[in-house]
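Write out the 3D structure for:
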Amino acid sequence: MRALAFLNESAAERAEIELGDRVEGALYFNSTGTFEVLAVLRGEAARQALGRNVDWAVTTRHLHTGHEVTHCMAWTASDHMISVPNSPASLGSPVVTPR
């Protein structure tokens, strides 16, 4: 049913859903590693960064390798937030990096 609802949402609403909780400074992990969000790009900035027609993009740094990449891979159930800047959960909380 989520797919049908997704079709009725505006491009901006779809972008927010695909972006998930990723904001600048956030830390998250998935099966490929742990990442820091360096930038969230929207509109023309995202299109220029990726060289194709996209509504948003995110620049991340892999915390283990230091590799930086800009992509527009949607947030999925396999992505897990560690901390979000200025959120109650991140204030004073140590960051635990999954292995």
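Residues 2-83 form a domain with the SH3 type barrels. fold (CATH 2.30.30).
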